[in-house]
Each structure stands twice: as C-alpha cells, then as structure tokens.
Write a structure and sequence with these properties.
397 residues; seven-stranded mixed beta sheet; 19 strands; binds flavin-adenine dinucleotide
Length: 397
C-alpha cells in the first residue's frame, strides 16, 4: 500500500477527477479509484453556468474546452402548448459582466475528457480503473479503502465522489436509496442539419408544458443538437411504481403540445430513458476522515442544470480546506467539516430550488396561466431568480 499521505478519491466522474485536479493545483497528491474498466462519460450535453465556468477556468481546462463549447446567447422559455416565447435571460455582455463569465454548453465527453487529460499531465495524480470500493476503515490517522478485487489502498482521507448510488454514502449516512421524482427523461444528439428550425441555434431553449418539458441546445462547436424530453409520470403518481414513463406515456403526455414540439420527439431515442431521483438534503456528509462530494453528497434534479457545476465547486472548496489543514499540520476531519459547512446551504438551495423549478415548469390550468403572465413580465437582463447561483463563489486562496 504505497503513499499513505495521499488523498483517496472514490469515483472518476466529473466530481472525482475535478477534485483530483483541484488538489494537484495546490500541490497535493491523490489516488482516484473508478469502478468502470475505463474513465468516461455518457454522450450527451451538459450546461455550465458562469459559476462553473470560473471554476473550470481556475482548474486550467477552459482553454482546451472552449473550441468545443457553445457560448449560449439566451436562455429561453417557450410555452409548449402554443409555441409562444414566455421569457428569456440574455447571456450577452451585461450577463458576462455581472457574473464574470459566459454561459456555455459542452458535450459531457469533452468536459470529462478535458479534466482527465489535465489529470494525466499531473504527477500528483494516480488514476486507477476497475476498482470498485466495497468498504473502508477509518484508522484515525489514515483511511484504508477496500476494493471488490481484494486489494486495498491507504490514504490520509477518503472522498466519496461515487455518484447518486454512492457506496461511501451508504456507509457514512446510510439513508437508503435515492428518492424517485416520478419524472422520466429521454435524450438524443442529432446532426445540426437534421433540425428544421434554425431560429434558436445559439440559444438554450426549454419548451414547457403540463407534466413535460423539452430542452434543446447545440454542442461541439455547433455541429450537433442535444435534445432532452422529460415527462412527469401520472402512472407513478397513481402508484404504478414498477413501470412508468415508458415511450407510450411520453407520447401521450406530449400529445397536447404543438406539432413543432411533437416533431422534436423524433430527435430523442426511445429505447433508453433516465428515471430521475434526488435525495432529501442532509448535512451528514462527513464522518472522521471521510467526506462526500458531488452527487454522492447532494444529488439534485437537473432543472437548474447545476449538478455537475456543484460537484466542480465542491472540488475547488474541498481542495482549499485540505491544503490549509495540511499546511498547518492539522487533522483532516475539521477541514472536511469546514468544507461541508461552506457547501451545505448552497447545494441544498440548488436541490430545493430545482424541485420548485420543476413544479413551476410542469404546471397546468390557472397555475399555468399565472406563471405565463408573471414570467412574461420579466426583464431579460435581470436574472434575479438565479442571481445567487450564477454569481458563484470566490475561488478560495
Ligand atoms: C438528464 C440530466 C441532465 C443533466 N444536466 C446537467 C447540466 O446541464 N448541468 C449540470 O451541471 N449537471 C447536469 N446534470 C447532473 C450531472 O450529470 C451530475 O450531477 C454529475 O454528473 C455528478 O457527477 P459526480 O462525479 O458527482 O457523479 P457521477 O457522474 O455519477 O460519477 C460517479 C462515478 O463513480 C463511479 N463509482 C460508483 N460507485 C463506485 C464504487 N463503489 N467504487 C468506485 N467507483 C464508483 C461511477 O462509475 C462514476 O464514474 C444532469 C443530470 C441528468 C440526469
């Protein structure tokens, strides 16, 4: 068991490798353990609010990522039952000046790939695949991780960045399975020339309607279009918990939308879907020398497009707390607790606001009339609802 002074990171998703890179930027060594045989991400898009852009810039990856990124001009909400634009956030010069960064969208593989390439260049980082953590033992001055293949690794602390079904969380908090929202998502990426209506090529658009929404934005320098369709399942609400949100329910829920919106359903694959979950926020992310990060700590519905952004912010804050503790010769548990304290309310606000935003975009009847009336009076240059989010956090010294 080499290098017991290193930090052990379980999970090589966006959060885990961002944490390794952030630690390395502060001169700290880590070992990443990913259970899959290869590091990688699924082939769809991801939105990066300006808060995440600033963190990724500090991590040094935006230079490589920018040629692939699309700089979003507007975030637009359209009523899916009428095709009428309801409101927009203008992401132009005023937005950039206020938040110190642009709004960008990227392919997940490009983002993960840029982080991974940066990790590979750092001697402080050891990357391991086919290492599924099954258990760990906190010995006070160190933590020993145990893997499914019978091997062990020892480090100063262990960070669980192992996603929404985290094994580390199961041991640290033990709050069971993530909570299903009853919402189901379908995704698809198609060449840009298959899209008939080019009017929103430079925007991120959400068509919203009763129990549904459809998201569209371009990726990879604008060459492909990312499409995401989501339904709130009535079958789930009726208690049919084993089978809900299938392609038949997707088509049924979208049948009230305009022909234009229904046509866009051809852009998403019907053979695979994502059943959405989050968890009730809890501050119990730290136990001794073990802490949680990203979806393992605070999984959220994607309605603010901030799950990965929060994981990246976590990584930067965590690295600062650990670096300060090690520089002062101190123990790591107080550093992990300080990280948790700094992150808990902000990430909880994202989890709770995402649920509320879901309820607002999916409503019907008079509630929908009121929502449309209210949002159509917004100022496109005043993103007050997400101002706290996009302002971000200072990069800790
Ligand atoms: C439809 C959808 C759209 C989204 N859109 C956005 C968006 O636009 N913007 C945004 O910021 N976020 C978005 N998100 C959220 C985002 O995808 C997640 O929050 C983010 O990927 C979480 O990263 P993570 O590294 O914490 O976890 P994960 O990406 O889940 O990574 C966890 C890693 O740990 C590994 N692992 C698991 N168990 C073990 C184990 N026992 N041992 C070792 N390794 C293990 C896994 O294989 C995986 O590689 C979206 C989510 C969904 C579902």
């Amino acid at each position: 068991m080499a290098s017991p002074s290193r930090i052990l990171i379980v999970g090589g998703g966006i959060g885990g490798i961002a944490a390794a890179l952030a630690l390395a930027k502060r001169g700290l060594a880590s070992r990443v353990f990913e259970k899959a045989p290869e590091f990688g991400e699924i082939g769809y898009g991801i939105q990066q609010g300006p808060n995440a852009y600033r963190m990724l810039d500090w991590l040094g990856v935006m230079k490589d990522l920018e040629p692939q990124a699309v700089f979003t001009k507007n975030l637009i909400l359209i009523d899916a039952l009428t095709d009428r634009e309801l409101t927009r956030i203008d992401c132009g010069p005023k937005f950039r000046a206020r938040y110190g960064a642009p709004y960008t969208v990227v392919h997940r593989r490009d983002l993960h790939g840029a982080l991974l390439e940066a990790c590979r260049k750092r001697p402080e980082i050891e990357l391991n695949t086919s290492k599924e953590l099954v258990d760990f033992e906190d010995r006070g001055k160190s933590v020993v991780a145990r893997f499914a293949d019978g091997t062990e690794a020892e480090g100063r602390a262990l960070i669980g960045a192992d996603g929404i079904r985290s094994r580390v969380r199961e041991i640290v908090i033990g709050d069971g399975h993530p909570v299903p929202a009853g919402h189901v998502t379908y995704r698809g990426v198609v060449p840009q020339d298959q899209i008939r209506d080019p009017s929103h090529f430079d925007d991120m658009v959400i068509w919203i309607g009763p129990n549904l929404h459809f998201v569209q934005y371009r990726l990879r320098g604008g060459t492909v279009m990312n499409n995401v369709a989501t339904v709130v399942s009535r079958r789930f609400e009726r208690g049919e918990r084993d089978h809900y949100g299938g392609p038949d329910e997707l088509m049924e829920v979208f049948s009230r939308t305009t022909p234009h919106v229904q046509e866009m359903l051809t852009y998403v694959g019907k053979d695979k879907n994502w059943v959405l979950h989050d968890r009730e926020p809890t501050p119990g992310w730290v136990k001794g020398n073990v802490g949680l990060l990203g979806d393992a700590a605070h999984p959220t519905l994607q309605y603010l497009a901030q799950g990965a952004c929060m994981a990246i912010e976590d990584a930067v804050v965590l690295s600062a707390k650990i670096a300060a503790a090690l520089a002062g010769g101190g123990a790591l548990e107080p550093a992990l607790l300080a990280y948790r304290d700094e992150r808990y309310m902000r990430t909880t606000r994202v989890v709770v606001t995402s649920r509320m935003f879901g309820a607002i975009i999916h409503c019907d009847g008079g509630t929908r009339d009121l929502r449309n009336w209210l949002v159509s009076r917004r100022d496109p240059h005043d993103a007050w609802e997400v101002d706290w989010l996009y302002k971000g956090i200072p990069i800790p010294g």
